[in-house]
Amino acid sequence: MSPARTHEPAGDAGADEDRLPIAWYARLVRRLCPSGGRLLNFGCGDGGLLKRLSADFEAYGYDAVPLVRSRCRTNVPDAVILESWETQPPAHFDIIVSVHGMERLAQPLQTIKQMGEKLAANGILLFAVPNPGGLGRHLKGQRWFALQQPARGALLTHAEWVMLLRKAGFEVVSVCGDGLWDVPYVTRLPMGVQRAIFGAPGALQAWWPAARPFLPAAVGECLVITARKP
Fold first, then answer.
1. Which residues does 105 contact at the CB level (< 8 Å), separation at least 6?
2. What is the CATH number of the domain that holds 26?
3. What is d(CA 217, CA 42) in angstroms, rounded to the nearest whole number?
4. Which among 10, 90, 121, 134 is placed 20 to 30 Å from 181, CA to CA?
5. What is the pLDDT of residue 107?
6. Domain count, the chain
7. Do the domain assignments include residue 83?
8. Is 69 within 8 Å of 43 (Cβ atoms)?
9. Residues 52, 18: contact at Cβ < 8 Å?
10. Structural domain includes residue 47
11. Percent of the chain scored above 70 by pLDDT?
12. Does a structural domain hold residue 30?
């Protein structure tokens, strides 16, 4: 799919389940919305995250790729998989979550504004995007994972995402990192040792019983951003 399609997240969340900590994102969503509500998984892929959340929320999913939407319907029969998320009524959702979909938008500000329209008052927008200013990008250089993805829009920085959210009328609650999981980072050091050293902060965060991530934005391959509609 061409990244020039403004409101279309890429349909690869399911393909990335081996890499992305889907279970952690599901726990984070439940902590942010402990009473459940109506949820949209924007860029739902094959439904790995949506399946974990469909028992706790009135779950909706959207993906730009028709074949992927079809697979998600099969994998998550309890969720409503939308052909077009933009047609949903205003203030329809309590939370919108997107894991590796927002960075593929050519005009993210327009999409974020639309998300604000679809969220109820005090609704939450939670998304994860690659962090070009993070330690992982610095250590990996041109081998950084986000640079290996052929279909992508702009890789925005921490400050740029915050600016877009505020322009769209959101209150930024937190911007954190997801840890360093893309080993190897250094040469001549066993992979097991690197996983233990670099992966320890992310593992601690994943199991810490707090409502928000706590790692600084720089300590992560990705930014994990939480914003609230006033």
1. 3, 6, 7, 8, 9, 111, 153
2. 3.40.50.150
3. 22
4. 10
5. 87
6. 1
7. yes
8. no
9. no
10. yes
11. 87
12. yes
Per the listing, tokens 């409502």 go with 211
* Residue 214 token pair: 């706590």
Tell me how far CA of residue 105 lies from CA of 91, 155, 156, 185, in angstroms: 22, 10, 11, 28
Token pair in block for residue 149? 């993805």
Which residues make Cβ contacts (< 8 Å) with residue 137, sequence separation at least 6? 130, 131, 144, 146, 221
Yes or no: say if 140 and 182 are a contact pair by the CB < 8 Å rule. Answer: yes
Tokens of 168: 């769209």
In a domain, 193, yes or no: no
Q: Does residue 66 have a cis peptide bond before it, meaning omega lies within 30 degrees of 0?
A: no
pLDDT confidence tier of residue 1, bands split at 50, 70 and 90:
very low
Q: Which of 33-47, 71-85, 206-220 has the lowest mean pLDDT?
A: 206-220
Residue 52 burial (CB count, 10 A):
18
**Residue 14 scores a pLDDT above 50:** no
Determine how β-strand 80-82 pairs with β-strand 222-228: unpaired
The pair of three-digit structure tokens given for residue 174, joined into one six-digit string? 């937190």
